[in-house]
Amino acid sequence: MLVCLFTSIIFQTRKKLEGGNLTCGFYEDGSRKSLQAKSKSNYCGENIFSKEWRQKVLVVLQRNNLKTRCNVGENLNCLKRQSILKGSCHILCSKTEHGVGAAVCVLTNDIWAYQWSAKLNDNNTVFQAELTALHEAVIYASHLPNHNTSKIHADNRASIMASSNSKSTNDKARKIFKILFSNPRIKVSWVKAHAGNIGNERADQLAKDATQHGQPYSHTKLPKPHIKGLLRKRMLEEWQTSWKNGDTGRKIFNIMPSVSLRPTNWIREDVIFFSQHGPFPAYLKRFHLSDSDYCSCGGIGTALHYATECIYTVSWHMRKPAPNFEQEWLKRVANNLVSSQKIRGIIKFISENRDLSRPP
């Protein structure tokens, strides 16, 4: 993120132009508009004026004793360059594999007057780093003499929009808003990032260095998504431990040994079959709801019996597994769509024909 803060001769020039009853000016987007609409945009001195305007601006520059190399027929980019050299603050944040860093550097009269860099928590976001850098910039600007107009250029729209909202949910953004509200001489506007100036490159290098060697900055809270992620991870770990060491639901545990927040595609019939808690004589006998655990066909009335042996469910039969491969067989059936359809057909048939599953 690039932020350019300068006490600019541009503003003095604008006042001189307004004092000369000029009715037109140029804005950052290059358009030519009336001065009455100046509150809707920001002036900059980088555009080409008409011949008459260039002469008047050149007179203003001479009156302010600016050693400019601008000719009458050239554009005024040098005005912007010289104003930046008068005093500029470049701010950048960087997030690499080494962490998150933010940096501020102030260039005054070709001298690095102030530098600040910090290493944020590795889990902090780039948006938080941008707000941190912008907060440092507005604090620096608020301590400048009151007669100087300070302008902050930021290349990140999200941080600008957040800091311009008095009801923002971000604490740092609200602090920036309060400083800007109490210091109307500080202006914030958006510019394109990495314009190729020396201050931007300096701040970029400082931010990258801060990711490895910067002073720890602990005043920025961890982002809510990261906190939620930590809580979710801790919850799943405790749930997994409880599920692994539990005494109940072992039949389902053998099929699904790992817990997950993602729902399965099981329906009622699947739960009945794999938990073996349903209209099976062996289950009913276990809870004294039936006098016998035999099916009417003569076999033990278990879920596996109806899926592989019972003569009443032969339309949905599957190959019976060996006793030592029964658990592996259940896992494969649970993950096979065709087998699942057969299981659901068996359970529906048994539920609708209870008399057939009772012992003779």
Order of helices and strands: EHEEHHEEEHEHHEHHHHHHHH
What average pLDDT do the residues reach?
75
CATH superfamily of the domain at 84-213: Ribonuclease H-like superfamily/Ribonuclease H
Distance between the termini: 82 Å
Q: For the report, how would you describe the main beta sheet?
A: 3 strands, mixed
Assign the CATH class of the domain at 84-213. Answer: Alpha Beta
Class computed from helices, strands and strand pairing = alpha+beta
Classify the fold: give the CATH topology of the domain at 84-213.
Answer: Nucleotidyltransferase, domain 5
Instruction: Please tally the β strands and state the result.
Output: 8
Please name the CATH architecture of the domain at 84-213.
Answer: 2-Layer Sandwich
- Backbone CA Rg: 37 Å
**Residue windows where pLDDT falls under 50 for at least 5 positions:** 1-86
**Which percent range fits the helix content?**
40-55%
Order of strands, main sheet, comes to: 1-7-8
Question: How much strand?
Answer: 5-15%
Pfam families: RNase_H
Organism: Araneus ventricosus
InterPro entries: RNaseH-like_sf, RNaseH_domain, RNaseH_sf
Domain RNase H type-1: 107-212
